[in-house]
Automatic annotation (TrEMBL):
Stated name of the protein: Beta-phosphoglucomutase
GO molecular function: beta-phosphoglucomutase activity; magnesium ion binding
Natural source organism: Urechidicola croceus
Assigned EC number: 5.4.2.6
Binding annotation for substrate: 8-10, 24, 43-48, 51, 75, 113-117, 144
């Protein structure tokens, strides 16, 4: 069986989660309510529009469709301000080694992200050419926890979902991987990501030894 990997972007390849949080928090504050880091967990892995809906629900705020578009654009502009200043040293620990190992061993891998900024971020970090396929928020109609993004990735990698190993930091992403019948690796704490097949506390634990074990199975 031809094994393949699918990587989430935000919180797995690079710690953009903190920038998303800052930008959403500013929007919440502008709308007159606070937004905590704990609440931010609910937005991880979720599409931009769905994130806004969750945020508005938390603040008990209603906006017209037109206002929603406006604040989403403002949030993204604010976010892009952080992203375009990002440096390669913001790539999470161990990730470059893992990607290089996979390439050297001809194990195909794809991105599977909800972000519409994914290509921009991978270009900025000089990682875009390493990937065999990229599936992001521009390619899907159903957001995580729907498995669509990962199923498209498996298809692009020309392998069956059962052969795919997904690396994810979000609850919605783990759910998506599980319902796609893929092996799920959660990056984060066990409490939050209990549904994952394997939980690692950080990307530093996603080492070659573990990968070799999973690829041999
Ligand atoms: C996910 C992030 O990867 O992408 C979410 O975890 C984010 O927090 C979503 O809202 C959409 O990202 P973007 O860049 O299209 O706003
Ligand atoms: Mg993520």
């Amino acid at each position: 069986s031809k094994k393949a990997l699918i990587f989430d972007l935000d919180g797995v390849i690079v710690d953009t989660a903190k920038y998303h949080y800052k930008a959403w928090k500013k929007l919440a504050n502008n709308l007159g309510f606070d937004f905590t880091e704990e609440q931010n967990e609910l937005l991880k892995g979720v599409s931009r529009v769905k994130s806004l809906e969750i945020l508005l629900e938390i603040g008990n705020v209603t906006l017209s469709d037109e206002e929603k578009l406006k604040v989403m654009n403002e949030k993204n502009e604010h976010y892009l301000g952080f992203i375009t200043k990002m440096e390669q040293d913001e790539i999470l620990e161990g990730i470059p080694e893992v990607l290089n190992y996979l390439r050297e061993n001809k194990v195909p891998f794809s991105l599977g992200s909800a972000s519409k900024n994914a290509r921009l971020i991978l270009t900025q970090l000089n990682l875009i050419d390493l990937f065999d396929a990229i599936v992001d928020g521009n390619d899907v109609s159903k957001a995580k926890p729907d498995p669509e993004v990962f199923l498209i990735a498996a298809d692009k990698l020309k392998t069956a979902p059962e052969n795919c190993i997904v690396v994810e930091d979000a609850i919605a992403g783990i759910e998506a991987a599980n319902s796609a019948q893929m092996t799920s690796i959660g990056i984060g704490d066990k409490e939050t990501l209990g549904e994952a097949d394997i939980v690692l506390s950080s990307t530093a634990e996603l080492n070659i030894e573990l990968l070799e074990k999973l690829l041999r199975k």
